[in-house]
């Protein structure tokens, strides 16, 4: 059932999936080889339009580039969103190359190197500090370059978010400065020669529960209200994080964006407007923006029967799409939506198992699936491949060639 929803989002014609309006077989011929990732800018734009039409207009949209750093896609995003968040010096350079204003780029993540911090200060990028060590390095870089760095404090909140695929706040964390330590840090910044814009709180990712997201956002606003009194100047930047999830499996229900937006309207027009009239509230989204616009396309190399089980062996695998194999932090492996892309209108046949070309039983892309009668050279398509795909996978494992990526 779930795969049919994605077929409708991308479109089909004459039994073929269409990506960017192009039949899959023609796209595969144009790319020249399989496997490959394809990102449909129409699907991407529809998601951004839905956010713009639903969320309060005062909120800035920031693209968390770590979800998909493909340069062509980032270039497209730079024209559609308000900000870009980066997590390394290389991502920073890709973002700067789009022409977006440097002060519209934020640099987050633990373990920033002194060279990356110097690069960010020199470029005028907003640095979200995650420790007092990073703060000292930012101050040193500003002194060395004769510049005033702009920073925000990433806060590790004193609450955790239930229902998140990955918890990134609450309890001990490598992310951010513990909220109880923030006042002392801010008092020490007053004469340090940096411009503190505000705060970043990111409590968890891949959450499909609108009520939990709204509660986290309310608690975030309450938390930063207690911290903002220690800022040298009125708060101008409030990154509420993101964590909006997308459905990957049959049991997942899509996030109710309208319910999230209603909670945000109450916050933006209530406590945020009253307590922080100079602050720009920011939503930092990665997976929710780009995850559903991407497909991973791989070709059947072999169809084999082993003791009653039918296997389709494809030329891709977990070295390109680790998450679909269940090896990207999932506690229980469940199938991603998957179709035979050149036979989407054919009736399902007997159950098959789709495996990759690697020498490990972990290389499993689809287990016990009812698919049309696929054979050698048919195209297997995995949906929900627009985020944490290629760059989140062990691409060097066994030395297979890297897949192409196309934005269509």
Question: Can you characterise this structure?
Answer:
Its cofactor is pyridoxal 5'-phosphate. This is Diaminopimelate decarboxylase. The active site is at 359 (proton donor). Residues 45-290 form the Orn/DAP/Arg decarboxylase 2 N-terminal domain. The modification N6-(pyridoxal phosphate)lysine is found at residue 66. This protein is an alpha/beta fold. It folds into two domains: 2-39 and 291-407, Lyase, Ornithine Decarboxylase, Chain A, domain 1; 108-285, TIM Barrel. It is built from eleven helices and 22 strands. The protein has helices at 2-10, 24-31, 41-54, 71-80, 89-97, 114-123, 132-145, 182-189, 210-228, 257-275, 287-290; strands at 12-13, 16-19, 22-23, 36-39, 60-64, 83-86, 105-107, 126-129, 150-156, 166-167, 177-178, 195-200, 204-205, 237-239, 280-285, 294-306, 309-314, 338-340, 351-355, 364-370, 379-382, 404-407. Strands 4, 16, 17, 18, 19, 20, 21 and 22 form an eight-stranded mixed sheet that branches. β7, α6 (114-123) and β8 form a beta-alpha-beta unit. α6 crosses α7 and α9 packs parallel to α10. It is elongated, with a radius of gyration of 23 Å. 45% of the residues are buried.
